[in-house]
Automatic annotation (TrEMBL):
<protein>
    <recommendedName>
        <fullName>Leucine-binding protein domain-containing protein</fullName>
    </recommendedName>
</protein>
<dbReference type="InterPro" id="IPR028082">
    <property type="entry name" value="Peripla_BP_I"/>
</dbReference>
<dbReference type="InterPro" id="IPR051010">
    <property type="entry name" value="BCAA_transport"/>
</dbReference>
<keyword id="KW-0813">Transport</keyword>
<feature type="region of interest" description="Disordered">
    <location>
        <begin position="1"/>
        <end position="20"/>
    </location>
</feature>
<dbReference type="InterPro" id="IPR006311">
    <property type="entry name" value="TAT_signal"/>
</dbReference>
<comment type="similarity">
    <text>Belongs to the leucine-binding protein family.</text>
</comment>
<keyword id="KW-0029">Amino-acid transport</keyword>
<feature type="domain" description="Leucine-binding protein">
    <location>
        <begin position="51"/>
        <end position="397"/>
    </location>
</feature>
<keyword id="KW-0732">Signal</keyword>
<dbReference type="InterPro" id="IPR028081">
    <property type="entry name" value="Leu-bd"/>
</dbReference>
<dbReference type="GO" id="GO:0006865">
    <property type="term" value="P:amino acid transport"/>
</dbReference>
<dbReference type="Pfam" id="PF13458">
    <property type="entry name" value="Peripla_BP_6"/>
</dbReference>
């Protein structure tokens, strides 16, 4: 008997999942992250049956609202496009939203519980929420439904591994934040090896906030820096939100490092750093975490943001697939809409809906038997969406990252490195290959 591949393994019920080659071969449009596969599964059915309620708990107000609104937009657009393709086996999706405000475990759990109790949602399709990254999973597990989020935390994988039977339905749609650390160091090494950048010294300053996300990334940089020849000359924790960076900048200017690595991620705070750094800069690369991907960063910082580097392990790619999504997104939500954030919940919804259709439908709270079938399909999928490839690690149920965790771009979500080169335009994607659309630019404050 021929041994089946990972994606051909049959589950306890239902047909075997097709191989990776046949899966993508069913229709070229699946490579475009579209609903063509879903429409094929629906076999012409119209979305006219009983609606399937789906939920999202997002920070629609307070300091992270700029992202929260886009998470809502991403799910809204996904539901519309899924319904246009026939829904899930003829049943349309009906989204419900709850505000997590300042977030935190207690508030996040309350919002999720309302979605389950009031609306009987079959799935919760989030962006991120600040917190431990391991609290929402319990009410989800109690209800036996599916949960996809982009909290970007290693805590998720550790929790799933601790009790895979209980947390079968919890998935992290992007890689864990840990991978930002070694990924960033590898990126800088690549700039040096290609002679695009030459360090002025071996010093690196790391600035973090007290949250789990920022701290885990900062610690990953600190722990692996020496492997790349770096000395951590400053490791500074700041209280956030922060608008006054003077004390931190004084330390940086007193002992200028070759690289400044900031793992805090709120766009308004990071824009203030850029504005206050610009009048008296050090000859340092400035790397920031995620926040510059939000348009508000450039709107606040303006010229001071030119030259800033940032990264995201999940974001809309600047290719044919990503630009088509951006066009649809901005046509619906406005030219200044943050499609990079909306892409997260959009892709998550597409992955879940496709898996549910393959599994014969989704399950309401209490119907964990059906949702286990959905989870089986999710673990077997290799989905090429607007953010790249979603393929879940079967143990921790987080997306694989490329190129640090896998060197095959068809099997991992790209860890994108971008640079703002003209604040009046979108950022330039400079790595990794083959996704890059531009070249690294020496920041204007570094004189040759």
């Amino acid at each position: 008997m021929t041994k089946k591949t990972e994606t051909e393994q049959a589950t306890d019920s239902g047909p075997a999942i097709p191989s990776r080659r046949s899966f993508f071969g069913r229709t070229a449009a699946i490579a475009a992250g579209s609903t063509a596969l879903l429409a094929s599964i629906n076999n012409g059915a119209k979305a006219a049956g009983d609606p399937i309620p789906v939920g999202q708990a997002a920070p629609l107000t307070d300091f992270a609202a700029a992202d929260g609104v886009e998470f809502k937009n991403g799910l809204t657009l996904a539901c519309e496009e899924i319904n246009a393709a026939g829904g899930i086996l003829g049943r349309p999706l009906e989204p419900y939203f709850e505000d997590t405000k300042q977030m935190g475990d207690a508030t996040n759990v309350q919002a999720v519980q309302r979605l389950i109790d009031r609306h009987s949602v079959h799935a919760i399709l989030n962006g991120y929420n600040i917190g431990s990254g391991a609290a929402i999973q319990d009410p989800v597990a109690d209800a036996g439904i599916i949960y996809i989020h982009y909290d970007t935390t290693i805590g998720h994988a550790n929790l799933v591994k601790s009790d895979p039977k209980r947390y079968f339905g919890s998935f992290e749609g992007d890689p864990a934040e840990y991978w930002y650390g070694p990924g960033f160091l590898k990126f800088v090494q690549g700039l040096e090896e290609t002679k695009q950048y030459k360090r002025t010294n071996n010093k690196m300053a790391v600035i973090l906030s007290a949250g789990v996300y920022a701290a885990n990334i900062a610690n990953a940089v600190k722990e692996t820096a020496k492997d790349y020849g770096w000395e951590i000359s400053l490791f500074e924790t700041v209280n956030v939100p922060i608008s006054e960076w003077g004390p931190v900048l004084a330390k940086i200017r007193q002992d200028p490092p070759s690289v400044i690595c900031i793992t805090h991620f709120l766009p308004a705070d990071l824009a203030q750093f850029a504005v206050q750094f610009a009048p008296n800069p050090t000859p340092s690369l400035v790397y920031m975490q995620y926040g510059p991907s939000v348009p508000a960063f450039r709107e606040i910082g303006k010229e001071a943001t030119n030259g800033v580097l940032f990264a995201t392990v999940v974001g809309c790619l600047q290719d044919e697939i990503g630009t088509a999504f951006e066009t649809r997104y901005k046509a619906k939500f406005g030219p200044n809409a943050g499609h990079n954030s909306g892409a997260q919940s959009y892709d998550g919804a597409m992955v879940w809906a496709t898996a549910a259709a393959l599994a014969g439908g989704s399950g309401e709270p209490g119907n964990d038997a059906q949702n286990r079938k959905v989870a089986d399909r999710m673990r077997a999928l290799i989905w090429r969406g607007v953010c790249g490839v979603t393929r879940f690690d079967p143990d921790g149920q987080s997306a694989y990252t490329y190129p640090t965790q896998t060197n095959d771009p068809s099997l991992g979500m790209p860890h994108q490195f971008l640079q703002i080169q003209d604040y009046t335009k979108g950022p330039v994607l400079i790595a990794p290959d083959p996704y890059g659309t531009g070249k690294f630019m020496t920041p204007p404050w570094i004189k040759s």
